[in-house]
Write a structure and sequence with these properties.
2 domains, 71% helix, globular
Length: 283
């Protein structure tokens, strides 16, 4: 490798190190702030363990409707027991010294990372900015804003909609002689991993928007590759053992790809055909 090529490569590594150092410092500061409410976040993650979620509210409304329209069926299947079933307390358990402390560190780290997302995405933008034109560099504010918002939307979508479904499905296997006993590390690590996955999944349309505006990808490039996107979504989801988790990852991931296709169509760089002439040129 020639000296001319080595020097720019080293400069890129130095710049990358600089951006990573800023990101790490920002995450550590965010982690320190998030530490104060990490216990509240843990309690929020634990809420589905009581069995009281939006799913139980929907089920209650359906059963009451059955009671109104078909009282005999309501009595036959003893649906009143389902409605009046008491909430169970299912505390998380730990079996290793300092295990709750390290879980608190992980929760604080992820919460701190989310808090400083604008800084993280801004540093990413500064790293790629030297390769952009002056006009493209002006997109920094829309990029940072959109990337931050979509990540947070993806994380909240998982926590509010998907997480109760997963836990509710898991608790449905409880029966006489078979009771749940959740380890705090397995429970929280599973949740935090899926928060990150959903946050990144929801970033796909933003990434597509940027690439489409730069002319790197287009609707014509993305649309024919739907089957490959479906296959990739299935492969990523297959790394999770249970079938429910696989589907709740695969479906949103593929839907984000479909949204990305339309984002590329609507916001992509428009190509001018030679036969149409230049913009503003008289026919």
């Amino acid at each position: 490798m020639s000296e001319e090529k080595v020097i720019p490569f080293i400069e890129h590594l130095v710049e990358l190190r600089k951006r990573l150092v800023v990101i790490v410092i920002a995450v550590v500061v965010g982690m320190g702030v998030a530490w104060n409410f990490s216990s509240d976040l843990l309690r929020f993650i634990e809420k589905p363990l009581t069995g009281k979620t939006y799913l139980t509210d929907i089920k209650k409304d359906v059963y009451l409707k059955v009671k109104e329209l078909a009282p005999s069926m309501y009595a036959h299947y003893k649906l009143d027991q389902e409605i009046n079933a008491p909430q169970k307390q299912r505390p998380l358990n730990y079996s290793a010294p300092l295990e709750p402390f390290f879980i608190q560190c992980k929760i604080s780290m992820l919460a701190g990372f989310v808090m400083v997302l604008p800084i993280v995405f801004y540093q990413v933008w500064l790293f790629i900015a030297p390769g952009l034109t002056r006009r493209e560099r002006r997109m920094v504010v829309p990029f940072v804003t959109a990337a931050t918002v979509t990540f947070c939307v993806g994380a909240m979508f998982f926590l509010i909609i998907i997480w109760p479904v997963i836990i509710n499905f898991s608790l449905s296997y409880e029966a006489e002689g078979l009771q749940s006993w959740f380890n705090i590390s397995a429970y929280v690590n599973f949740c935090l991993r899926l928060i990150l996955i959903f946050g990144l999944i929801f970033e796909l349309p933003v990434l597509t928007l940027i690439l489409a505006r730069f002319g790197i990808v287009s609707y014509q490039f993305l649309a024919p590759k739907r089957k490959y996107a479906l296959l990739a979504s299935s492969i990523v989801a297959a790394f999770h053992a249970d079938l429910i988790t696989m589907f709740v990852i695969m479906i949103p991931m593929y839907l984000m790809y479909e949204i990305s296709i339309w984002v590329a169509l609507i916001f992509g760089k428009k190509k001018v055909r030679i036969e149409d002439g230049l913009p503003g040129q008289a026919a």
